[in-house]
Every structure is written in C-alpha cells, then in structure tokens.
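Handoff note, outgoing to incoming analyst
You'll be picking up this chain. Sequence as last confirmed:
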Amino acid sequence: MPQPHEIKITVTSALAGHPYQRDYAPQMTATSVLSDALTAFGFASDGTTRYYLFFDGHEVPPEATVGELAGHAKALHLKLRTETTNG
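Most recent structure output, in case you need it:
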C-alpha cells in the first residue's frame, strides 16, 4: 500500500517577515501546524491574543487535518490571524 504524500504547508502572517514552510503528513492536525508556526515566528500567547489559522475564507477548526484541508493538492497556503481581546 503506498504511503500518502506529505503536503507542503506555507503559513504567512502580516506580523512575520517571512513565511513558515514545512512538509506535513496528511493526518497532522491544524493544532500542530499552528503550534509549529507560532514557535517558528517567535509568537507567544500573552493571554490577550488568540492565534488561529485561516483558509479559503474561514477559520480552520483545530481538529481539521492537513489532508482534509488540502484534498488532492500537494501544497497548502494558510494564513495566521490574530484576535485581541480586552480583559
């Protein structure tokens, strides 16, 4: 049985000087991608900022897998968005 291909993920953020890129297995979740991207960008949660991934006009559910989002595509471009809350 052939192994599913890895999917090239690119995450961009208006607050970062360069995109985050890495290949992920299709079963990896958006939560893992978000965590890795935040680390790569050097962003840390401060309790007032919520970070989330955005794709195709919608917020990506944390449990969504890379494979579900990409479908048959071999690459996927996600945007990192922030939401600031007043506490």
